[in-house]
Design goal:
The complex is a heterodimer of chains A (540) and B (261).
Chain A: H1 11-70, E1 89-96, E2 102-111, E3 122-132, H2 163-167, H3 175-180, E4 197-212, E5 217-224, E6 232-235, E7 269-271, E8 276-277, E9 286-287, E10 304-305, E11 324-325, E12 330-332, E13 343-347, E14 354-357, E15 359-360, E16 372-373, E17 375-381, E18 394-396, E19 400-406, E20 410-413, E21 417-419, E22 429-431, E23 437-439, E24 449-453, E25 462-467, E26 474-488, E27 493-505, E28 514-518, E29 525-538
Chain B: H1 6-10, H2 14-67, E1 71-75, E2 80-86, E3 99-103, E4 106-110, E5 113-119, E6 125-127, E7 141-143, E8 153-158, E9 161-164, E10 172-188, E11 191-196, E12 199-201, E13 210-218, E14 223-231, E15 234-237, E16 240-243, E17 248-254
Antiparallel strand pairs in B: 1-2, 2-10, 3-4, 5-10, 6-9, 7-10, 8-9, 10-11, 11-12, 13-14, 14-17, 15-16
Classes of the chains: A alpha/beta (540), B alpha+beta (261).
Amino acid sequence: MQLRRTNAGSALICVLCTIFILSLIGATVLLNCAARYNVTSKQVKGWKEALYAAEGGGDIAFAEVRKLVSNPTAAFSGWTSGVPAPGPSSNGPYTFGQSNSLSTTVTVDRLQPTPNPNGVFCYRIRATGTARLFGLPRTGLDSALTVGGNNFAANSATRGNGDTLLRKIDFKYDHFKATYGDGDMNSPTLQTVPYPQITRRIELIAAPQFASFTGGLMVGNAFAGPGHAGVVDSYNSKNYSLHPGYAYNPADATNPASAYYADARNGNVSVGTASFTDWGPIYGNVTTNGGNVTHSGTSISGTIDNNVPFTIPPLVGPDTSTFATGSGPTLNVPSGTSPGAPAQYVYSSLSGGLTINGQTGTNPLLPSYGKPIETYVTIVVGSAGSTTGDIGGITLGPGVNAKIYFTGSLNVSASALVNNNVDGAVGVYTLNPDGSVLPSVDYSRAGHLQFYGISPTDGSTQSVAITPGGGSQDVYASIYAPSANVSVTGNVNWYGAIVASVFTGNGNGGGNTSFHYDTQIAGFAVPIDYQVASYIEDIR
Amino acid sequence: MKLNNCRSQNGFTLSEMLVAVAIGGVALAATMAASVGLQKSLNAVDNYFTAHTQQIRIVDYLSRDARRSYIVTSTGSPQTVTCTTPEYLDSTGARRTPKITLSANGVTVNYRGVSDGVLVSGSSTLTSPTAGFTSADVGKTLIANDIPAGTTIQSYAGPTTVVMSANATASSASEIVTIGNTVLYSINGQSILRTENGVLTTIASSTDNLLPSSLDTELANTEYLQTSITFLPIFTSSGATVERSGTTLYSTVYLRNKRRG
């Protein structure tokens, strides 16, 4: 008998089929898991890259804002509206990254800070960064859609949980435009996106950095003074009712009963090195960098801190390409000027001195008729890179606010710096753009005359030497000259503020040279750069 | 008719059948065991990846909040991170225009705040004619010179008045007060919770077994927050949960609003 079993051999096939099916199941689940993980990884990557793109746009705009100080004529070139005034002005999209998968657009508009005595502005930068999502258009791990179906992007309120809540992926529609329109809830529009993407939005505020008069005397390298008969103290020029026309009272600093006692004890001295010497009293705080100043042996009323390092950056002069060329010994400032739009002139030298006249009210129906009106002028003496822009003397008419940059020296007698303004701006008016007038709030007499020493590019030192000479010994002015050696000798009374490399006030210990800081000057300055003062992400 | 006897000759014997059934049973059992094991592995891998994704997401949440904050403070025991973020949006959802103040002390950018705050030393009442408080402000942070750090709005008393969580340290008739959102990260067991103005935010479907650690470092010109979150995956073995050490994710974020220059 012969059996026919060989015809029924199917066990191997069955085993192979089973293994195949199991492998198929295993491969499918692993593939599915790996695919979801890959999708999640790409979404995390895209979310981060979208922020990089947005911050890249912010950096592009911030660079343009900084040009407003360093190179104004090149700022915002190629933008939709040029320099924002107030804007908005936009640019982009800029594309970059893998296969140009990243893009950014940026918009800038101008904001008004308060107070704004220097007429400078802040800028709001709104940047949008978008990252394209490669791979399968699906949710990642731990993501779930609650309402809204497969597209789920039409309205943010319908979002699910997990990554979708944080990363806000636009699979088919731009959820932001669909829900928030332009960002301020105007005109929400259902708009499709060309491919799955993640978008992030940031807002920066760029604010000016100032070369500022934040203290009484601020020197980078060495301080010597006042002499035995001198004094460093302070006052507030807003207190003009103290005396007719001026606010300083030498007795305030030593009279606790005085209402102006606190105002009189802000004559702060800051030195960026250990080099500090004084003989007379200082009514204020003193800081040095490594010095050994103590209350013992000195007459310092405030705190002493010998561990305060700082440096004063060099001062770069303004771009004078749009300045008018000045000439002659007299300058009449035209009407219609403002802190943000001063009259601008450039002189090769003022070694022979300059008289600057302002304006008076011309409308007989207004209280300003015949009275001084606040006018504003910026003058540059010398040209970029030169060291010969010397100043011989300045006479300032009532109401004139002058910022005078110089590349050379300022070696004059005290009587050659004549500031005919008054503390408290008594009797001076501010002309508004609509023709109305208000009493001036530019209280500081010393703040009306500001000198700015442009740091020599060859590393040399500027010279500012104020000698007594004949006539008045009172100087109402402020100096910001980080590369200058400033010396004041004789019986000069300096009202205002000084920032310099070296200050010497009767360094031999004799003389009556005194320095009186006007606290109203703290807000006076010139912008030397911009900084990012605020950062926020619109997380919607 | 002639019967075909071939079938009877091709049949299996009982012993053959028993062997075949035994082998088949073993094969089926092996298949079932492999299938179950595969399913377990899938779940384990899926859970692992999901938890790891949550780990990443929590760090991303924290980084995002810290990056946009005015102030970030952290405590060690209990572990918390408190972020005070600007109130960027008004009640209608529109973006606010900030008030920018230049002073000798620097630049202040304030998206929501008042300059007419009235405080009485030792009192927890804050009034401001222009504040426009609403009941939704409860839990938000107040920042001012004469208010202790970390003070929040405890209760709403009207559009011009709220009760603070701490008393004013000095009296003022024109206090400049900044109002910000309060985002708090805290620990509950081995879970990480995020609340915004007191309302719990779902940042992960399950935050179990995530051990956080944070360090807030303030430097002269900047401030940064270092965070690490350790993931402890749990697997089931013979019916018992077994916790194993897992990955630790580190993050360092610089506070943009502390950046100067």
